[in-house]
Every structure is written in C-alpha cells, then in structure tokens.
Specification:
Order of helices and strands of chain B: EEEEEEEEHEHEHEE
Number of helices of chain A: 17
Strand order of the largest sheet of chain A: 12-11-10-13-14
Distance between the termini of chain A: 56 Å
Shape of chain A: globular
Strand content of chain A: 5-15%
Structural class of chain A: alpha/beta
Helix content of chain B: 10-25%
Structural class of chain B: alpha/beta
Strand order of the largest sheet of chain B: 1-12-11-3-7-9-10-2
Oligomer: heterodimer
Radius of gyration of chain B: 14 Å
Largest sheet of chain A: 5 strands, parallel
Largest sheet of chain B: 8 strands, mixed
Strand content of chain B: 25-35%
Shape of chain B: globular
Chain lengths: 429, 144
C-alpha cells in the first residue's frame, strides 16, 4: 500500500471528519492502482466537484438526490452519504454546462438551468472558485513553476506542465474532488522530474509563426507521439499564450499529450539535451510542407458543403486578446442571416470584454459572447446547424464527431468571413 | 459453459490494479479508448469515429485494450457506465495512465496490467478469460 504520513493516516482514520476520510480512502485505492509510493501535497485543484445533470441526481434519489448525495456517492465513490465541508485546498470549478444568462439561446430548459444554478450555489458555498472555464490559467489561477497541482481538462493540463512548468497528471473528477478535501494527490507521473523528459523528437522544417500553424503543428504532434512526450525543434516563432493554448489543445486531442518541450521556448527545455535528459529519442518525426498539407486536409476531411451555418470560436476559451481581435474583424459588419457566430470565454475575461465594449461590438454584429461552456461540452448549437467552422483544431476534432455535423478548420479571419457570408472560402496559404 | 470443464488455460502474470475475480468473454482492441466523446455511458458502446470497435459494447465483457486516451472525463464516463449497468466485468490493459487507473478504481472491477506477455498478442475477442486482480493473473481459454 502507498506510504502515508502521520497526517494522512489521521485523515484515513477519520480524525478530520467523514468526508475527508472517504476522500482519503478513494485516493489510497487510486494510488495503489497506479503503484504510487506516496502522496504529494497540493494546494491547487481544478475539477468539476458535485456538478451533475438530472440523471445522476435521480440515480441517487434514495440518498436524497442532492449535491451532498452526488458528491458523496459519485465524486468520492463512497457507499454512504457524508456531510461535505468547505474544501481545504485552493480549488476551482472548470467549465460547466451552460451560459448563466444566455442558456435559453443555447436551447436549455428552465428546469436544466435551475439544476445548474443550484449546483453552482453549492459549489460556491463549499469554497470552490467559480471560474467555469477550461482556461483557469487566464481566469485567475496561474500556478508557478514546480508547483504540484491536481487538474482536470486535457488542454489545461498540457499548458500547466509544458508552458508553466508546474506539475499535474490528467486527473479525473473523482480524484480532483477528493484532493480538494485532502490536499493530496498520488506522487506519480508528471509530479516526478524523471518522468518529464522528452521521448520523441519533432523536427520542424518550416516557419511556425501564427496561431493557425501552431494549431496544425499541435495536431500533427499528438498524432505522431500519442500519449508520450515530444521535443519540438525548429523555426517556431512568436510564442505566446494563445499559440501555446491552441498547440497544446490540439496535441491533447489527436493524441493524449500531457507535456511537450519546445527547445529554447518552454521552461524545461533550454537546450535539446536538457529536454531529453538521459533519454534517447525513440523516434524523429519530420514536419514539412507535405505534412502540413496532410494535416490541413485531415482537419478538413469532415467538411463537404461550403454553406456554413455556424461559426464557433473560443476553444479553448478565448483570451481577451482574441476577443479584441474578433471584435476588430467584425466591427461594422453583420453575421449573415443564414449563419450564426458564438464566441466562448470565461466569466473573468468576459468582464474585461464588457468593459472594453467588445461584447457590444459582437452583439451589434449579430454575434454572441458566451461563458462557462462550449458547443462540445454543452452539446448546444444554433438550431438546425449542419455545417460549422472553427479556428481550433481541437474543436474540429470533437464537435463534428459528437454532433454528427460537417466541420471546417481555418484562420480566425476565414471564420469571421464565413460567419458574415455564410460561405466557407478557407484555403491553405 | 464453465471454465472448469475446459482444457488447461494460458496464464499471464502481471500486477493488480484493482482486486477481485471475474470471468467472461473477451472483447479485444489494439486501439486506445477515449472515455468522454468516445463511449456512450448508458450502453457501454464505443462511439468514436474510425474506432475498430465502433458500435460494439463492452458491457459484461472482459475488456482487453492497450490503454486510455483523450479527455480527463474518462473516469466519470466509465463510472457512469457502472451505474447504468454497462461496465465491463474486468479489464486488462498495457499502458498505465491516471485515466485508466482511476477509471478501474471507480468501476470497482478486477483489473490487471504489466503482464509478462502482451495480452493483445494472445487474447482474441470471444476467448473465455478469468481475471484475478489480487493474484495479478489472467487465464485464457481460447475459443478456437
């Protein structure tokens, strides 16, 4: 069994209350499944504690069918219902099911909204920050290098490890909820320095200098290395938060990349040698013009009709810089009567967009700025959507598969044009 | 058909992920499995586009697969499958990840990994398999 400190043993014996005990029991089962020898302390946990749709509440009807029942029975996988105290770790809630004000536009029922609002009240009452975003790192939760975190959300995990140099595995709902109470997570995988070294080399042979190309390179990388750690070397330029965000989300979708190194760019890769440590690269994958075209065609393989009736921006949630740019592109224009434009972000970023007038510019053009969720998470799209367009490789990977629609991948400019003309004219430059 | 009445099984040795013993018919894939966006939790059916098991359910099977991939919602989707009565009876996989470990824990089904031979080379869909999580063994009776 996993080794425990005195305090961890106390938690397991119930000295910090029944909920902490149940959380520790679950984490011990999890650590043993992994083969972890100990826990690390964490004070930065991102998950979706206790939030549930009606099915789950109904399933636990005999236990009360409320937040307490769902948190005990599902989040902590406990056979009995326990009182859930305020969380002990600094904790935040990731993306959720609907926009808190535009839920009706998203096709949600009043009943579903009431359930959402009641879960949110409970979440806040338990001391969990309502960030409601897949990008906590641009909504108020920025870890520091080396910090042990316990995060869900693959695109946030890869950003946390690769760009910040903080340490997290891809945690799940149950492990993050338990960590919120215990401030512990198994010391396994990305918490350990030797696990963070590169395994494959990606030899980049052409300039990668805008978000569209960073996204395609990310999709290529995930497909090449699957769940393992790539080291990218070559003329990758103009690194920025947005570009890393799109690269990592794409790599975590086509594969399961949880950490990448870019030589001279990311913090644990000052040199090629430092990125690999004692590892020898198992494979070298070449990204050239031919591969770039292949990836572009793969991302656009789910597109056939050019009659775009929905443009979705904000996967992962848009930063304020991206919202400003979208507003700039659409100001003075109108979304076509045959199309729709929804832009997704966090509540924190939207507050800035409101103050800057971007929300109004988008609305005047017939677009909507929404928070909390996205079309893939909420399965909400404008009624009758058949063909959608995206500037996110991750979203074109998921949404057409989930919703059975066609999809196009292109630049932000091409997407805004498509929203205003209801026609896809994207091309690989 | 009871395993006892059949010929001597092939035995693989590995390590426990989750304890307990279960037996049944194998469902085998060489492709990693996505939870959220890849599985319909209510029926245990694989829904991922282009997956070789697309349209097939792992409910009540011994699921043999290389590992977990995709969204961090893996454990919650498999957990929900357990509640819906659509979980596999046991799992055997090669690559340990946090997704697969947590998923196995909350499904509460016997699970084994780290076997001395690649189970994907030995077990085929339809074989009769017994997984002993505590002993870390997988016994296989070939269907043909």
């Amino acid at each position: 069994m996993v080794g425990l400190t005195g305090e961890e043993r106390d938690m397991l014996e119930g000295k910090q209350g029944a909920a902490v005990q149940k959380a520790m029991e679950l984490l011990v089962r999890y650590a043993d499944a992994l083969g972890a020898e100990r826990f690390v302390e964490t004070n930065n946990v991102a998950g979706v504690p206790g939030s549930s749709h009606a099915w789950l509440k109904d399933y636990y009807k005999e236990d009360g069918g409320d937040y307490r029942a769902v948190f005990s029975r599902f989040d902590l996988d406990s056979d009995e219902v326990v009182d859930v105290p305020r969380m002990n770790a600094y904790s935040c809630h990731l993306q959720g099911g609907m926009d808190p004000t535009l839920w009706s536009e998203q096709g949600m029922t009043r009943e579903a909204f009431d359930n959402f609002a009641s879960d949110e009240q409970e979440t806040a009452a338990h001391g969990v920050q309502i960030l409601k975003t897949c990008t906590p790192y641009i909504a108020g939760n920025v870890p520091v290098m080396g910090e042990h975190c316990a995060w869900m959300e693959s695109s946030a995990v890869v950003f946390c490890n690769s760009v910040i140099g903080a340490r997290t595995n891809t945690e799940g709902r149950e492990s993050t909820s338990a960590a919120m109470l215990t401030k512990r997570i198994p010391d396994w995988g990305f918490h350990r320095p030797e696990y963070r070294k590169g395994q494959h080399k990606i030899d980049v042979q052409l300039p990668i200098d805008d978000v569209f190309d960073w996204g395609m390179l990310g999709y290529f990388t995930g497909e090449a290395v699957q769940e393992e750690i790539p080291v990218l070397d070559g003329p990758i330029t103009r690194a920025s938060l947005i570009r890393h965000k799109h690269f990592g989300a794409a790599a975590a979708s086509s594969g399961g990349v949880e950490m990448y190194h870019m030589v001279g760019i990311t913090p644990e890769a000052p040199t090629l040698d430092a990125a690999f440590g004692t590892n020898t690269p198992r494979n070298t994958f070449v990204y050239d013009a031919k591969e770039r075209r292949r990836i572009y065609e793969m991302l656009n393989a789910v597109g056939d009709s050019s009659a775009v009736d929905y443009v979705m921006l904000g996967c992962p949630h848009y930063s304020i810089e991206q919202i400003a740019y979208a507003a700039h592109l659409i100001e003075g224009r109108k979304v076509s009567a045959n199309s729709a434009l929804w832009v997704f972000t966090s509540r924190a970023v939207k507050a800035t967009a409101d103050a800057n007038g971007y929300t109004k510019i988008l609305r005047d053009a017939g677009a909507l700025l929404m928070t909390d969720t996205c079309s893939a998470i909420s399965q909400a799209m404008p009624k009758g959507t058949r063909v959608a367009a995206f500037d996110s490789a991750k979203q074109v990977h998921y949404l057409p598969a989930i919703m059975g629609i066609e999809g196009w991948y292109g630049t932000t400019e091409e997407c805004i044009d498509a929203a205003c003309t209801a026609k896809w004219e994207g091309k690989l430059q | 058909m009871s395993a006892d009445t059949m010929t001597k099984p092939i035995v693989l040795k590995g390590r426990k992920v989750v304890g307990g013993v279960a037996e049944g018919e194998a469902l085998v894939t060489r492709e990693t499995i996505s939870g959220w966006g890849g599985v319909h939790a209510m029926t245990g059916t694989i829904i991922e586009s282009r997956h070789e098991l697309k349209g097939q359910s792992f409910a009540d099977k011994i699921l043999v697969f290389p590992g977990a991939k995709g969204s961090s919602g893996w454990s919650a989707v498999f957990h929900t499958a357990r509640l819906a009565g659509a979980a596999p009876r046991a799992m055997v996989f090669n690559q340990m990840t946090t997704k697969a470990a947590l998923g196995a824990v909350v499904m509460r089904i016997p699970t084994v990994t780290g076997l001395d031979r690649d189970p994907l080379d030995i077990i085929e869909t339809g074989d009769f398999v017994r997984v002993d999580g505590d002993a870390g063994t997988v016994e296989i009776w070939k269907a043909r």
